[in-house]
Each structure stands twice: as structure tokens, then as C-alpha cells.
Design a protein that fits this description.
With 109 residues, the chain is an alpha+beta fold. The chain has a domain of 62 residues. It starts with 9 loop residues before the first strand and ends in a 17-residue tail after the last helix. The relative contact order is 0.11. Belongs to the 'GDSL' lipolytic enzyme family.
Length: 109
């Protein structure tokens, strides 16, 4: 695919800005998701993006979102189980394995 981007890599015809094809799971989430909601932490406070370094997850005044399976950010630092599942599926079942695992030894639920 011809490209005029600095590294010859694009993501849906936009420069990725690194030496890869830019088609990483986190890029896909970032380009397709509601950025105002998807970046908010699930377990946190009422600060911007629900992250307050003075009130870490589990301390008084923090809360947990109603459905962590719809979030990618757990506490402002770590991914949720759902995000790790998406990453693992991409690595094991494809298309992010190189060489690809055409018949993976197991499926990720």
C-alpha cells in the first residue's frame, strides 16, 4: 500500500507515526471508540477521566463502574480484564501473532 506517512505506516489512511503497520488493538480501540468514555477509569474517583493519584482505587471516596467489561481502563494505570482478553485474543487467535497461529491450541473465552 503506497503511503506518504513518515514511516510508511498508516491506520485507515492516517499516519501511525511509528515503525509498524499501526494496526494494534489499542489503536483500533482509540480510533473507533467514544474517546470521552473509553478513556475513563472504571475504579476511581470523580476527577477528570476518573483518575486522582491522591485517591487510588479502593480507598474511601472511590467507586467502581457498573460494568467493567465495557471499559478498557481499570484504575488509570492498568487495563480491565476485558481489555486484556481482547489483547490476548489478538495475540493467540490472530491477527497479531507473527508467525500467525493458524490453529491455536486453545480458544480464549
Amino acid at each position: 500500500m503506497p503511503s506518504n506517512s513518515p514511516y510508511g505506516a498508516t491506520y485507515f489512511n492516517h499516519p501511525a507515526g511509528r515503525l509498524s503497520n499501526g494496526r494494534l488493538i489499542i489503536d483500533f480501540i482509540g480510533f473507533t471508540a467514544d474517546k470521552n468514555e473509553i478513556l475513563k477509569a472504571c475504579c476511581a474517583s470523580n476527577a477528570p477521566y476518573n483518575v486522582d493519584v491522591k485517591k487510588p482505587c479502593g480507598t474511601a471516596g472511590t467507586m467502581v463502574c457498573s460494568d467493567p467489561s465495557k471499559q478498557i481502563n481499570w484504575d488509570g494505570v492498568h487495563f480491565t480484564e476485558a481489555a486484556y482478553r481482547m489483547i490476548a485474543k489478538g495475540l493467540v487467535e490472530g491477527p497479531f501473532a507473527n508467525p500467525s497461529l493458524e490453529t491455536p491450541p486453545f480458544k480464549i473465552a
